[in-house]
Design brief:
By secondary structure, this protein is α/β, with parallel strands linked by helices. The protein is built from nine helices and ten strands. It has two domains: 176 residues, 3-Layer(aba) Sandwich (Dna Topoisomerase Vi A Subunit, Chain: A, domain 2); 69 residues.
Length: 259
Amino acid sequence: MWHLTCGDLAADSVRQLLGQGNGETVRVLRDDLAVGPLADIDSLPCAERVAFWEGVWPVALTPRPDFAVGLADDAEFLAGLASQSRPVSVWHGDSASEQLMLARVAAVLEGSALPFQEVVCGTGDSRVGTRMAVSMHAPDALAALYQPRTVEPDRIAELASQWRAVVQESAAIRRWTAGRFAGEGYKAIDGELVAACHTDWMPLARAMAQVMGHCDGFFPTDLFLYWRARELAESGAIELSDRAVAVYSRVQARRTVVS
């Protein structure tokens, strides 16, 4: 069976639980589907999606992933799922990325007779303080949650419909709330990041942590927020002590004062 997870931390936890061999293979899908355009994510060479991640990744940060190869590999793997014989199990929690991964897999398996299961590791509530991602569970808790459920045709159709809708919308950000996806631009998250900065110099990491701690509907990663900070500095909304450094923990930030 294929066990699909969103991100390496989740994959490590699932591998630890399942052990090696026994016909169980964990496949990691690393793309954070909650952010960035999706219009060509299933269409090789995924040029728009690749360009987005190339821009998000700090130029000085190494090693640099080969986004073109990684995104194409994911698209090809998923496109071929329905034509192979191994059952598929998707592990998911309350992150928008995990839920989008589930919907994406449902879209490629819609109409297929391939056994399709889900392992529910979330609470169903994506608000801060309540939500749980697969990687957030201790090994014993994850073992207790390992209760695969068959994804029935009606649910597959609903998830597939949601996936097609978000791909068509191709918003900048997708939040998952009450079982539905809502797209938006960068305005709200940018406003929160600017508000978290003081007029005096402060660690950028502190402002980013404040945004993370109050963001319902999706998990804004440090990589994503560092990119938004660089974009805000480019527009003059905030100042950064260094826009080129690879590690944001070495960067100071302050809100631009308009005289």
